[in-house]
Amino acid sequence: MHRRREPIQGLVLRKIRKRYGWTQKELSRRSHVSALTILNIEMGKNQYPLLDTVVDLANAMAIDVNDLYREELIHVLSKR
Question: Domains in the chain, start-ordered, CATH in brackets?
């Protein structure tokens, strides 16, 4: 089980999820990641989730895994 050294950007996850119009429960269903884990990531309580978890979330949203670690996307997503 691997973890990346840099923290995941929970706000990026939240903004992308909301762009899809999905609830945390819907993302959970699509990614097979628990809604509690998604909540904890989005709230910044789990900034270093397992890489498998991040891959599952990214795949469910059809995005690059690295996007969930890019702090600058917070500003880009806020402008749209």
Answer: 10-79 (1.10.260.40)
